[in-house]
Write a structure and sequence with these properties.
The structure holds 2 protein chains of 2 kinds. In chain A, 40% of the residues lie in helices and 15% in strands. Chain A is of the alpha/beta class. Chain A folds into 5 domains: 8-215, 3-Layer(aba) Sandwich (Rossmann fold), CATH 3.40.50; 223-380, Rossmann fold; 393-481 and 717-770, no CATH class; 486-566, no CATH class; 620-713 and 777-825, no CATH class. The relative contact order of chain A is 0.08. Chain B is 22% helix and 28% strand. In chain B, strands 8, 9, 10, 11, 12, 13, 14, 15 and 16 form a 9-stranded mixed sheet that branches. In chain B, strands 1-2-3-4-5-6-7 form a 7-stranded mixed sheet, covered by helices on one side. Chain B starts with 8 loop residues before the first helix and ends in an 8-residue tail after the last strand. Mean pLDDT of chain B is 90; it is low at 1-5. The chains are: A alpha/beta, B alpha/beta. At the A-B interface, α19, β20, α28 and α32 of A face α2, α3 and β16 of B.
């Protein structure tokens, strides 16, 4: 046996399967034997998961177990998805049973029964496969020191998908705790290709020397193509309606196709339209996170059995689960990032030596540019995964309370421990102390809650949990995924007469009872799934929408249910925003700007797009790579100002809010604005042709203007709500009340208003502002852009709309503007009432 | 109670020109964008659902809401009282979030209430949250009361609706955002909650919708004004 060889039964098992042990698999075993932490970067299909477990299997098989009195937990595996943990369990059982290894493997997720969870604490398996949330729960229990005391290995799967999020923060704090509980254990991280592996190597170890890096050779290059549609390319929109027949034809030519779209609404639309033209009755299914879990399991089962030809899905199928023989991935809409695209393509052909086949279907002209940029980046192997984040203070607060639930602690010790988690390495002691004070009594300057404290400091300086109820409430609210408030969608049993909103024509029918649509509705029909409350809030009674592949009409909302009936007709009110949640990556944005600036590169573009850009060059000017193009022109009785920053819809939306405030002050009388991923347009009563653009777009708008806007921004309030829930200021679930306590809780919008006024330096506001920099408001990106273009603004005053401005102008009236609950809307509705009264 | 005019007819006329108003059971009431209403003949200011000490009520159960809600609500109430200088203030029930709230009042907040009560009548109508109010706090206690042709009570009655003014349900209108609102059909009036931490219920919710038989108008609280909007223009929401 050479130094590199695996134990005999492992070598022969590989051989019996006709496999060879890959070099990166051997490298991980070597690293483990040398007592090193390691990061494996490997493409899909490279035997990544088995590589992560090999050292554990070998250790247990070769007698590691004998050294562990009481048979305690040997290996902890953490996956971002519970479905992936279940899938990995199934795959691991094969080598274990075929080699007859004395290894007991179990999963533990939110679905595991309370009884089994109890037993797992008492009598843990050799390997436990679980999620970051379950780890947080396990370490917040008094028996954690016993459970993890002899832990040898931790395997972190799909680490790239976890580390740059609050779930990654929670996991990093959990890992820091494990390092205290079981100093001897070693960690292996598994990841897809990322921009900078050093960040993950640091994440794995916390502080000290970086984890070893093991890189598997890349798989066969993907066969990427962009649909060269024979149809007319739309100017705007995200539906890809024009390309559906061509997508359908591609499905017909492939064995099994995954069709990725960016949102649930898009998934519904594409699914509906494909079935409309499904003349061959191909088995095409739908899969997204709002569907009933049972329905999703059915689709997944049908996929692995090879009973389907296509599945239309959102990112719920993004991660490494092997669902069967997918030979084509269709990505509808813009990919938004080069790395994202590659990870999605990885879904096809979970075999290294065959190349994946992917077809990109841009839904509009700008998306063509984005697709071309993404394909070029993918061919070069360029990566644009996000940079390492600073840990969220709200997550830290949650973790501090969890620590107290395990055992009393001294502040100095806990501070040292959390500082060893990479995202929290830079947290000042003063900040930690404020987090601690928040956990105890809310951390307010006004010390009126001391007698209600959740954790209390004893005379010996040790912090203890105040009572058992606090620990119980903590466990019920662990986790950092704050779900959007959702309503159940339920069919009404009796089809009531649907009365739409009143208009002049149906006033007569309303005079008896008023537009009282919540009247005689019968509940008790079937629940079809769940839908985001903010979406339903935009609908008027009688409006139709797509859900679960059906057209439904909203009847009314009663408590936490949206009552609906099946509707006829083929024109549902399509959700106004169908773009993705993810903004265009900075890297792709730069490539798109570069492409626009160099007409020589246009030869790869479809003719329709080339002509469009050519027109733009003739009638205005093309944006330059490092400049900001601003166009102004009159249209109707309004004046339009259109800017092209290419920084993503969220940053543009924030820009729109701030810019309109500033224009207001300069007397330009702005009336509204609209934003997409590429551009932003403001319309005003005053002409902006001679406005000082350098002053309007000055980066000082991020000072007072921003501050004033944040005071009332609905997006900021949503951001704050997330922080308040993660930090356990608000508990969504109470002991004795298992269901979400909608009525019993208090509006975080109101808390935000009061806190901002009375204690603007509070730690939760600090946490929310930090989130706003990258989250829904993307202020960080806006700031970088404004800084970059200072002194580089190209302003073209035109006499009419430019070709490049058409797409964003078409969004007017379609895109909702989150934002200030402005009195404007109220004033207009009030005027209508007055007009009605005085015709 | 005596509806004797503390404000002259001329002054009342002037007030209704400067302020939004509505008519319930033939009686004109003026609306303040802070969420209060003013009955000019009696010089009565009416506020509903103050929910004082809601923050500390949650803190007792482990949710440490910012302890500034009572001060914030009282500050807004003080401004409103300064604006109208009413002869009587009527709090329409659920003025305190729970039975012990009066005992938990900070000294400063208790003093603020006393100062507001000085020189005027003050009536606490009892609500489901505050069937009893701490003796620390001055003012009269009533189950319900008459004001001219109007009946003031906390919880809207299922039967009687002519001329009723009630709170309890915290109506909000969703129109360009979620806003507190008065809701009326000309027969009865539902007042919005005044308290800083008092949540809201969409005016389309059956609990509110079933109270009205006529066409509903929402008088929606804007930043500096109250806007009358047809209820059918307001979105569904929960």
């Amino acid at each position: 046996m050479t130094a590199d060889a695996l134990p005999a039964r492992f070598e022969s098992w590989f051989a019996a399967r006709g496999w060879f042990v890959r070099p990166h698999q051997r490298a991980l075993v070597r690293a483990a034997q040398a007592g090193r932490d390691a990061l494996l970067i490997a493409p899909t299909g490279a035997g990544k998961t088995l590589a992560g477990f090999l050292p554990s299997l070998i250790d247990i098989a070769e007698g590691g177990r004998a050294n562990r009195p009481g048979g305690r937990l040997h290996t902890l595996y953490i996956s971002p998805l519970k479905a992936l943990a279940v899938d990995v369990h199934r795959n691991l059982e094969i080598p274990v049973s075929e080699m007859k290894l004395p290894v007991r493997i179990e999963t533990r997720t939110g679905d595991t029964s309370a009884q089994k969870r109890q037993r797992q604490r008492r009598d843990p398996p050799d390997m436990l496969l679980t999620t970051p949330e379950q780890l947080a729960l396990l370490i917040a229990s008094p028996d954690a020191p016993h459970l993890f005391g002899d832990l040898r290995r931790v395997v972190l799967d799909e680490l790239h998908a976890l580390s740059q999020s609050k779930r990654g923060d929670l996991l990093a704090l959990g890992l820091a705790r494990l390092r205290s509980l079981a100093p001897a254990h070693r960690v292996t991280g598994l990841s897809a290709t990322v921009r900078d592996p050093r960040e993950l190597r640091r994440y794995i170890v916390g502080r000290g020397e970086l984890a070893d890096l093991v890189t598997a050779p890349p798989g066969a290059p993907a066969e990427l193509s962009i649909l060269d549609t024979q149809e007319r390319l739309p100017w705007s929109g995200h539906s890809a309606r024009h390309a559906l027949a061509e997508i359908y034809a591609a499905i017909g030519r492939a064995k099994m196709t995954l069709i990725f779209v960016n949102t649930r609404a898009q998934a519904e639309f594409v699914f509906q339209e494909l079935w409309r033209i499904n003349e061959d009755a191909l088995p095409i299914a739908l899969h997204h996170g709002s569907l009933d879990a049972g329905q999703r399991r059915k689709v997944e089962a049908a996929m692995s059995d090879g009973r389907l030809r296509a599945v239309v899905c959102t990112s719920t199928l993004d991660l490494g689960i092997d669902w069967g023989d997918v030979d084509l991935v269709v990505n509808v809409g813009a990919p938004k990032g080069a790395s994202r695209l590659m990870q999605r393509i990885g879904r096809a052909n979970h075999r290294l030596d065959e190349s994946s086949r992917a077809l990109l279907v841009p839904a509009n002209r700008f998306e063509v540019l984005e697709c071309v940029a993404a394909v070029a980046a993918a061919r070069e192997g360029a990566q644009d995964t996000p940079v390492a984040r600073l840990g969220g203070l709200d997550v830290l607060c949650q973790h501090i309370l969890g620590s107290a639930c395990m055992a009393p602690f001294a502040a100095d010790d806990l501070y040292a421990e959390i500082s060893s988690a990479a995202p929290y390495a830079g947290v000042a002691r003063e900040t930690f102390d404020r987090a601690l004070a928040f956990v105890a009594t809310g951390g307010y300057a006004l010390k009126s809650y001391d007698r209600f404290a959740k954790i209390k400091r004893n005379i010996d300086g040790v912090w203890r949990i105040a009572n058992a109820r606090v620990a119980q409430a903590y466990r019920m609210n662990v986790g950092v995924i704050v779900e959007e408030t959702k309503l159940k969608v339920r069919l009404t049993r009796s089809v009531g007469k649907n009365r739409g909103p009143s208009g002049p024509q149906n006033n007569a029918s309303l005079k008896a009872r008023g537009p009282d649509y919540t009247g005689p509705l019968t509940r008790g029909g079937r629940v079809l799934g769940e839908i985001e409350e903010y979406f339903i809030e935009t609908l008027a009674p009688g409006d139709t929408f797509l859900f679960g592949g059906e057209i439904l009409a909203l009847q009314g909302i009663v408590e936490n249910e949206a009552l609906v009936r099946r509707a006829q007709g083929d024109a549902p009110k399509i959700p106004s925003y169908m773009g993705g949640k993810f903004p265009l990556s900075t890297y792709l944005a730069e490539r798109v700007r570069g492409m626009l600036a160099s007409p020589a590169s246009w030869k790869h573009l479809p003719e329709q797009v080339r002509d469009w850009l050519g027109e733009q060059r003739k009638r205005s000017v093309l944006p330059k790579r490092d400049n900001l193009l601003v166009e102004t022109f009159p249209r109707g009785n309004r004046f339009f100002t259109v800017a092209y920053p290419f920084e993503g819809r969220l940053a543009h939306q924030t820009l729109g809010m701030l810019l309109t405030r500033r224009m207001e002050r300069s007397g330009l009388k702005p009336l509204g604005f609209v934003a997409n991923d590429y551009a932003m347009a403001v319309w005003s009563l005053a002409d902006t042709a001679r406005a000082d653009m350098a002053a309007l777009f000055n980066q000082d708008m991020l000072g007072e203007d921003l501050d004033a806007w944040l005071q009332e921004s609905a997006l900021m309030k949503r951001t704050f709500r997330n922080c308040a829930i993660v930090a356990h200021l608000i508990e969504m679930r109470f002991p004795g009340k298992e269901k979400t306590g909608r009525q019993a809780t208090v509006s975080t919008d109101l808390i935000y208003d009061v806190l901002r006024r009375h204690e603007p330096e509070h730690i939760l506001l600090e946490a929310a502002y930090a989130d706003a920099a990258t989250g829904l408001l993307d202020i960080g990106r806006l700031s970088d852009m404004l800084h970059r273009v200072q002194g580089r603004i190209t302003h073209r005053a035109l006499d009419r709309i430019s070709p490049l401005a058409v797409p964003v102008m078409l969004e007017i009236g379609k895109e909702p503007i989150y934002g200030e609950a402005r009195d404007e809307a109220l004033r207009m509705a009030a005027e209508e009432l007055i007009e009605e009264a005085h015709p | 109670m005596n509806a004797g005019a503390s404000v002259s007819a001329v002054e009342a006329e002037d007030l209704s020109e400067r302020h939004a108003s509505l008519v319930v059971a033939g009686q004109r009431l003026l609306l303040d964008p802070a969420g209060a209403l003013y009955e000019p003949r009696a010089g009565a200011l009416v506020v509903a659902d103050l929910h004082l000490e809601k923050g500390s009520s949650f803190a007792r159960r482990g949710m440490m809401l910012p302890p500034y809600d009572t001060a914030a609500t009282l500050a807004r109430l003080t401004q409103t009282v300064m604006r109208w200088r009413p002869r009587v203030v009527i709090a329409l029930g659920d003025s305190f979030h729970d039975r012990d709230a009066g005992e938990r009042l900070g000294a400063e907040d208790a003093a603020k209430i006393s100062a507001l009560q000085a020189g005027r009548e003050w009536i606490w109508i009892s609500g489901n949250h505050d069937p009893q109010i701490s003796p620390r706090v001055g003012g009269e206690r009533h189950e319900e009361m008459r004001l001219g042709g109007l009946t003031l009570r906390h919880e809207p009655s299922a039967r009687e609706s002519h001329g009723e003014i009630a709170g309890h349900l915290h109506p909000v209108a969703v129109i360009g955002g979620r806003r507190r609102a008065f809701v009326t059909d000309g027969m009865r009036l539902l007042a919005p909650a005044f308290g800083a931490y008092a949540g809201g219920l969409n005016l389309h919710h059956p609990a509110i919708a079933r109270l009205f038989s006529g066409r509903r108008i929402a008088h929606v609280l804007g930043r500096d004004a109250v806007y009358a909007v047809c209820a059918s223009k307001c979105a569904a929401g929960a």
